[in-house]
Amino acid sequence: MIKDLTKGAPLKLILLFSVPLLIGNIFQQLYNLADIIIVGRTLGINALAAVGAVAPLFFLIMFTVAGMTNGFAVITGQKFGAGDENSVRRSVAVSTILSTILTILFSLICVLLMKQILFLMNVPKEIFSDAYWYIQICVMGLIVANFYNLLASVLRALGDSKTPLYFLIFASILNVFLALLFILEFHMGVPGSAIALVVSQIFSVLLCILYVKKRFPILHLQKSDFLFKKENRKKDFDFIMEHVRVGFPMTLQFSVLGISVLIIQCVCNSFGSNVIAAMTAALRIEQLATMPMLSFGVAVSVFVAQNFGAKNVSRIRYGVIRTSTINLLLSIAMAFIMRYWGSNIIGLFIGGEKTEVIKIAHDYLWISTIFYFFLGQIFIFRNALQGMGRTLIPLTSSFAELMIRSFAAVYLAVQFGYYGMFYAGPIAWLTAAIILSVGYFINIKKLIFKYKKI
User: Fold this and answer.
1) pLDDT averaged over the chain?
2) How far is Cα 366 from Cα 339, in angstroms, rounded to an integer?
3) Which whole number is the average pLDDT over 69-88?
4) I need a surface site. Which of 4, 164, 223, 329 has the fewest CB within 10 A?
């Protein structure tokens, strides 16, 4: 259902919009959690380590696609907020063309260079084969992930956060059944988990397309939406560049974040299967714990984009401050839960008898939870800036995060072992939060001055 976020109580709208996003993000994580539970429980620690060793590479690839589609959808949201339905359809057409071409090129490069990439990542020999086939299958199915992310981003840009949720729930449940089928019945091992992931994503895309075709007339694209006429060459080029100016920096930004996580994984891989398995479980659980904060961030991005298009600056400021406060409270609550019940949750994933792995994972959570406040503010201010089309500051913060996370991971790991590596992410969060919050307040003051009569 299309929702205009430029009218009504801002906080209520953001809260209602966030709930389906939260549920959807949780089910999105079930794709990954299913891998851990099924692979860890049925195939053992080495199989779990194989999935974990390439998890950051998988996230880098997915971050790249998500950054691109989310960036393009910012323009879609702005056009919708401005009440320009023709430009909304035109934006979706341009986004489809650009994202499809770039995803195919990116997939080909990854497939051809995958062995070299895994060698550079220090993936241990005993898990190399499983890790290689798992990530290769995921990359081959990347075009499917692109279409789902694009459709979901466009629907969210129009204020509909529920429709993508329904298909994610279906795909997540299907993924679990297929993974069990391929691993336990067909004995396909770790690659079977990757195949289950891709197949379930295909179904989510098909269902999403059918639903959009039936219920969203505004997204019924015509042949003319894809055509570029000579007489409108400059106007069409400017429209494409409008997407490029927002989409490409967000793609780069998400890629930089993925690279920083990848570097930490390379360091982690040097400590052996137990540390890899522990970090795999801990990071997956942490992603689940921070989903509420992330969901508010995505909701803020859509809210800001629509209101930026409508030039409602006062609503932007009000909505951002309120959600920032909510994320502060959420960060405290999630940190408490992770610190005191993290070990029990980890034990559910890998088995309570793996005491050494559980201890390593819990030690990581004990350190990282102290910094959840900064992570929660990153989600709010980064998405607010992106919703306004201000991509330079988020990109700058991402590069700063990359440098600090990488330096800290390598230097502290040398000095203190894998415990030192645990501090790399939290220190990077602190740095990025400072840059983004300062950047947001500077930009919002400029907008208030520009539209002071609104």
Assistant:
1) 83
2) 5
3) 85
4) 223
Give dist(CA 283, CA 52) in Å, integer. 10
* Residue 393 domain-assigned (yes or no): yes
DSSP string of 40-99? HHHH-HHHHHHHHHTHHHHHHHHHHHHHHHHHHHHHHHHHHHTT-HHHHHHHHHHHHHHH
CB burial class (10 A; 0-12, 13-18, 19+) of residue 168?
A: buried
- Of residues 298, 314, 316, the one with CA closest to residue 250: 298
CB 115 within 8 A of CB 175: no
Instruction: Classify the phi-psi angles of 7: left when phi > 0, otherwise alpha if psi is within -120 to 50, otherwise beta.
Output: beta
- Provide the pLDDT for residue 103: 92
Question: Which amino acid would we find at residue 447?
Answer: L
Whether 5 maps to a domain, the answer reads: no
- Determine the Cα–Cα distance for residues 447 and 440; give it in Å rounded to an integer: 11
Do 190 and 128 contact (CB within 8 A), yes or no?
no
Q: Identify the weakest region by mean pLDDT among 82-86, 129-133, 271-275, 384-388.
A: 271-275
Q: Please report, rounded to a whole number, the percentage of residues in the chain having pLDDT higher than 70.
A: 93
State which residues form the domain around 298. Answer: 10-450
Q: How many domains does the chain have?
A: 1
SS3 200: helix
Q: What is the spatial distance between Cα 388 and Cα 303, in angstroms, rounded to a whole number? A: 10
Min mean pLDDT across 26-40, 44-58, 315-329, 372-386 is at 26-40
What whole-number distance in Å separates Cα of residue 281 and Cα of residue 319? 34
Radius of gyration of the chain (CA): 21
| Structure-block tokens of residue 315 | 């609503």
Q: Give the other-Cβ count within 10 Å of 241's Cβ.
A: 11
- Residues 173, 184: Cα–Cα separation, whole Å: 17
- Which amino acid is it at 279? M
Locate 282 and state its tokens: 């801990």
Q: Please report the DSSP string for 238-250 in residue order.
A: HHHHHHHHHHHHH
Neighbours of 51 (CB within 10 A): 28
Q: What is the helix (H) or strand (E) element at residue 37, kind and residue range?
A: helix 10-43
Let me know if residue 291 belongs to a domain. Answer: yes
